[in-house]
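Minutes, project huddle
Topic: does the predicted pose make sense with uridine-diphosphate-N-acetylglucosamine bound?
PN asked that the exact inputs be recorded in the minutes so nobody has to dig through chat later. Recorded below.
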Amino acid sequence: MKKVLIIFGTRPEAIKMAPIINEFKKHPNKITLKVCITAQHREMLDQVLNFFQIIPDYDLDIMQTGQNLYSLTSKIIQSLKPILENFGPDYVFVHGDTTTTMASSIASFYSGSKVCHVEAGLRTLNKLSPFPEEINRQITSRICDYHFAPTESSKINLLNENILPENILVTGNTVIDALFESVKRVKSYNSEKIDKIVSLTKNSKEIILVTGHRRENHGDGFIKICNALKEIAIELPESSIVYPVHLNPKVLKPVNEILGNIKNIHLLSPLSYPDFIWLMNKSKLIITDSGGVQEEAPSLGKPVLVMRETTERPEAVEAGTVILVGTKKDLIVSEALDLLSNKKRYNKMSKLHNPYGDGKASIKITNFLNKL
Ligand code: UD1
Ligand code: UDP
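Predicted holo structure (tokens), as shared on screen:
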């Protein structure tokens, strides 16, 4: 029997770890599994836990409004100590690039557990972008024993850092596992939120879906993003922009101030994962700075404008499924208007192959663990 602890704390980590939890649970004779949430996010995390029916064994419940990186990091490390010491996992699984990921890796290393990193090897090599995620990833890779890379290019990044090839497995991204499974479940799905969106957009020619939260875009970047969205809304009065706004106060404030009173911009609270998948499906174009959304959207045939200056997901740019527009107001506006009016370009982009996997990443990870 292997004692395994899965630790995560934010919305995207939960979505991307859910398929692994489900897969590990199919092997009760080989894996004793416990799940620990730091609750770096609260409401946005609980929405995902509800949908995937994950009941955590440990909940550190650390989120505070407007939290900062110093206290977040130290609280996670401190609070994990008793859990790691009492349960004594052989393997700890962390995901991606958040402060939960980095701090949990450090704590797990201190406890003597082997640390396994899901979605390993993404790099921009620019320590300020994305901030602090690029450094979180690099620290996590340094600590981890096993690395589950979503693509060949993320594996190459790890090899370039002298990580041994036998400790790396290319799996695809578990976000596709979650998406495929959830798309099946939401086929005949409905909710009050969906009814509300249908009613808000019933006279619209098309929906443009927006999300955004990156720390490096806080301040000036978000003001430019909001001004671009305002201009798109004015240029396309028959279209609706639907924007479920991230709960970070540094995002909520400028978005509500600049976009709060525009007729065809609908600001919503964060959507549950099934509601969000439904909305992605209904949308014509997605404008986002999210990592997960740019990985999911090509599987639904939706072109994405990515509001980032750098990318750790070059596969999507090479495949042509996303276009990097940064936070440059004029570029966001011109690319959005062009894609929505140029059918040939739109159709080409919406039919491209998703480079992030076949939905079997969590099975590959489970087989790897079982063989260790
Ligand atoms: C975090 C991650 C980022 C990830 C993103 C996914 C870090 C440093 N950042 O950014 O890598 O891409 O999550 O969304 O790890 N809040 C709530 N309720 C919630 C969630 C957040 O009120 O359910 C508010 C709180 O005021 C909180 C603030 O948002 O203090 C910021 O949350 P935090 O996790 O520190 O940063 P994010 O911007 O969410
Ligand atoms: N998502 C969601 N509800 C929303 C917005 C996004 O469930 O209102 C999902 C989305 O499908 C994706 C993930 O959240 O899987 C992305 O999370 P986020 O953008 O917060 O973080 P990132 O991926 O940038 O780290």
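Observations noted during the meeting:
- The two ends are 11 Å apart (CA to CA).
- The pocket of uridine-5'-diphosphate (ligand 2) is lined by residues 11-12, 15, 175, 211, 213, 244, 270-271, 273, 276, 290-293, 296 (CB under 6 Å).
No decisions taken; revisit at the next huddle.
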